[in-house]
Amino acid sequence: MDAKVSAQSEKSMEGADIVVMVVDSQAGITADDEGVAGRLRGRTGPVLVAVNKVDDEAHEDLIWEFIRLGLGDPFPVSALHGRGVGDLLDAVMAVLPDEPAGATDSDAAMVSVSGQPGADHPMVSVSIVGRPNAGKSTLFNRLIGDERSVVHDQPGTTRDAIDTVVQTELGPIRFVDTAGMRRRARIDQATEYYSLLRALAAVDRSDIALLVLDATVGVTHQDQRLAERIDGAGCPIVVLLNKWDLLDTEAREAIALDIDHRLHFLGDAAVLRVSALSGKGLNRLLPELRGVIAEYRRRIPTQAVNRVLRDAQAVHPAPDGARVLYATQGATDPPTFTLFANRTLPRTYLRYLERRLREAFDLGSVPVKLRVRRRSGE
Ligand code: GDP
After folding, report:
1. Residue 290 belongs to what H/E stretch?
2. 180 in ligand 1 pocket by Cβ < 6 Å?
3. In this structure, which residue's CA is closest to atom 25 in ligand 1?
C-alpha cells in the first residue's frame, strides 16, 4: 500500500505546478520526510511546506524545525480546524504560474493523426471507466487485440495520460487515458480515490463512456457515483456488465434488479452483458457505439421538431397560457434544442417536452439539452 501511494504521489508531483508537502508537527522530521524533501529540492517549480496539526498558537514554534528540510519557510496549519489554511492558500496563489503544466492542445494533435482535418466530425473519444479490478484493462486489450490495428498512441492532456487511437469499422476511435490499460505499459493499480479522479478526467475528455461493472460484485456505491458524474457531464454511457461468465442464473437475475434499482437514472442506457476475458458479448459493443454516436450527432429537421412540440402542447398545454412558439435544433453533440416561448416555462413542463422529443426521435440514452428563449413582443 505504501509503495503504491508513494508511486501515486510521485506521479501527481510530475504533473503539478506547485507541490505542497504536508508534514506532521507532532512527529517532527521523519526519514520519509527527508527522502521526499530531497527529491523536491531537485525539482523545478515552487514547493511549499505545510506543517500540520498546529492547532493553536502555543504549538507554532514547532514549525521552525522543518526549515531543515531546505524548502523555505514552513506554513503552520491545522487541517482539522482550518487554522492557517487561508495563508497557505494565499502563498499558493502567489506562486501559481499563469499557464497550467502539461497543457497540450490535444484536438490540434488529433487532426494530424486522423489525417482528416476539418472532417465532418472529429474523431469519437471513448473512455473506459470503472472500479479497479472491474476488467477495464482486459476489455481494452481485447478490443485492440480484436481490431489488430492500433493507429497511434498519443499524449493526453495530463502528463502521464496516453490515449490510443484504434482503427475500427466505425473509423478511428480514440480511447482516452489508456496508459494503465496497455499490456506492456501497465502502471500500478491506483488507489480507489485516485482512480476515481482519473476516471472523471478521462470522462471529461470523451464523447462516450463505457462503464465497466464487475457483475460478480454488483453495482457498488462508487459505481453509482461514477455513473452520476458521467451522466451529469452530459456524456452518454454504455454499461458493460463484465465477468458475466462467472454468474449463475440466480446471480444474473439479481444483478438485473440491482441495475434497475441503482442505475435507474441512466434511463435507456444500453447494458451489455459481456466477458472481457473470453470476448463473449463484445461483438455487440461496436454496433451499440455506432447507435449512440449516430444519436449524439443527429440533426433533426426543424419541421419535425416543431411538429412534435405542437402535438405535445396540444395534448398537454403548459400552464398560464405559456407556449412554445417554435423551436430548432441549435446544435448536435449532444442534441440541443432552442425553444422560443412567449413566457417562462415551468421545469416540469420542459421535462415533459424533452421526453416527447426523446421518444419521437428515438434519442435513447443521449443527453438532450433544451434552451428556452423568450420571444419579445408576443
Ligand atoms: P482493471 O483493474 O479494471 O483494469 O481490471 P483487470 O482488467 O486487470 O481485471 C481484473 C481481474 O479480473 C483480472 O484477473 C482479469 O483476468 C479478471 N477478469 C476481467 N474480465 C473478466 C471476465 O470477463 N471474466 C472473468 N472470469 N474474469 C475477468
Report:
1. helix 285-297
2. no
3. 243
